[in-house]
């Protein structure tokens, strides 16, 4: 069995909203160039496969048929359909939009197939993680929700419990909405609070549908300027115990790196080292609770040179069981290409060092707004998961 499968094809760069849009294909291009320069494609535990365009039947496992038809029409005729979020400032229409978005989704679904069947332990799709798309509309740069489709495929293949972990700066609202009433899916989102960031949802009190699904939505809404150590403290305090208590048979995670302080669209201050640490924790969690079944996706992230390629190349390395060293020098060949493409001088190293952070068991500080946010989530949902909100 291969350790990891990376979904990649240059055709994934065709998901392109046009010049000036934050969701620039250069994010993926520079990521994959760095992955190659670091030698990760030659790592013994990894294989690379292309991403197929998902069939309408597969896309419709999480989207209404009428919406899929609208996406295809908008991307063929270039006629907006703002009632479905198509042709807005966030989601401009472009030729071939359906195929581009269905290819993202197809890649993530194929990884779910491979992980569940045992062909590989882990799957990575850095072009995926389109977590805002709703059943019948586009939202927040996301046309089709590949993350939800990967979860759905795991359920359809026989998984009785799947955990979805969302580490993007923005609330994973689309995935949560699609599984709000499904007790088989635990959605856990750690994000900037809705008062200061799109989509304005994901409050601690949002805990899932009534009845058996109550307690299967977990939301940690963090204040602006939360730093890497505080962010890791929140993950340690909520994500890890919640997922362990749920005992999933597979883990799907979204690793949007717009939590970084350089990101132009969010207001958190999480460095690459903390992002890498969180990815390692999710990786370890998948081995501990789900026999290693792990599908890791990209997502948001708009600091195109100094953040996205570093965070996601490190994610690929983590999934391949070939983690990169904190503070290692970045390849000069990659830095030259990145500078030529962007006009910016890239970072010289991959982060600095493993971050300092304070475990939740060290005590709760009611004067700390991050601790208050964490405590609100634990009080709201931990009893429903059989956990003590006050203690480890």
UniProtKB/TrEMBL annotation:
Protein name: Acetoin utilization protein AcuC
Lineage: Bacteria, Bacillati, Actinomycetota, Actinomycetes, Micrococcales
GO biological process: acetoin catabolic process; epigenetic regulation of gene expression
Molecular functions (GO terms): histone deacetylase activity
Keyword hit for Protein biosynthesis: no
Domain Histone deacetylase: 21-317
Statement: the UniProt record of this protein carries the keyword Cytoplasm: no
Keyword annotations from UniProtKB, A to Z: Acetoin catabolism
Pathway participation: Ketone degradation; acetoin degradation
Top-level division of the source organism's lineage: Bacteria
Organism of derivation: Antribacter soli
Similarity comment: family membership: Belongs to the histone deacetylase family.
């Amino acid at each position: 069995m291969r350790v990891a499968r990376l979904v990649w094809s240059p055709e994934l760069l065709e998901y392109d909203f046009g010049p000036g849009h934050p969701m620039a294909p250069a994010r993926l291009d520079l990521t994959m160039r760095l992955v190659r320069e670091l030698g990760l494609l030659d790592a013994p535990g990894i294989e690379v496969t292309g991403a197929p365009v998902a069939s309408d039947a597969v896309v419709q496992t999480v989207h209404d048929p009428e919406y899929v038809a609208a996406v295809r029409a908008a991307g063929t005729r270039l006629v907006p359909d703002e009632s479905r979020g198509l042709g807005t400032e966030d989601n401009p229409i472009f030729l071939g939009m359906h195929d581009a978005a269905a290819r993202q989704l197809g890649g993530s679904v194929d990884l779910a197939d491979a992980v569940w069947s045992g062909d590989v332990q882990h799957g990575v799709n850095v072009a995926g993680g389109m977590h805002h798309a709703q059943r019948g509309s586009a939202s927040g740069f996301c046309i089709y929700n590949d993350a939800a489709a990967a979860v759905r495929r795991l359920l359809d293949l026989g998984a009785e419990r799947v955990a979805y972990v969302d580490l993007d700066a923005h609330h994973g609202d689309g995935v949560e909405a699609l599984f709000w009433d499904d007790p088989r899916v635990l959605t856990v989102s750690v994000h900037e609070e809705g008062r200061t960031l799109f989509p304005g949802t994901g409050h601690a009190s949002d805990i899932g549908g009534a009845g058996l699904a109550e307690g299967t939505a977990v939301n940690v809404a963090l204040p602006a300027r939360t730093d890497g150590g505080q962010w890791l403290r929140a993950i340690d305090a909520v994500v890890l115990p919640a997922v362990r208590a749920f005992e999933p048979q597979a883990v799907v995670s979204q690793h949007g790196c717009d939590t970084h302080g350089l990101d132009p669209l969010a207001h958190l201050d999480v460095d690459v080292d903390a992002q890498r640490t969180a990815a390692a924790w999710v990786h370890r969690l998948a081995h501990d609770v789900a026999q290693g079944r792990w599908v890791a996706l990209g997502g948001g992230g708009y600091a195109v040179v100094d953040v996205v390629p570093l965070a996601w190349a490190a994610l690929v390395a983590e999934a391949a069981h070939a983690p990169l060293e904190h503070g290692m020098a970045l390849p000069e060949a990659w830095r030259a290409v990145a500078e030529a493409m962007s006009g910016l001088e890239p970072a010289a190293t991959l982060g600095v060092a493993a971050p300092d952070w304070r475990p939740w068991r060290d005590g709760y500080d009611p004067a700390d707004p991050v601790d208050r946010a964490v405590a609100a989530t634990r009080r709201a949902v931990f009893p429903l998961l059989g956990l003590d909100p006050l203690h480890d």
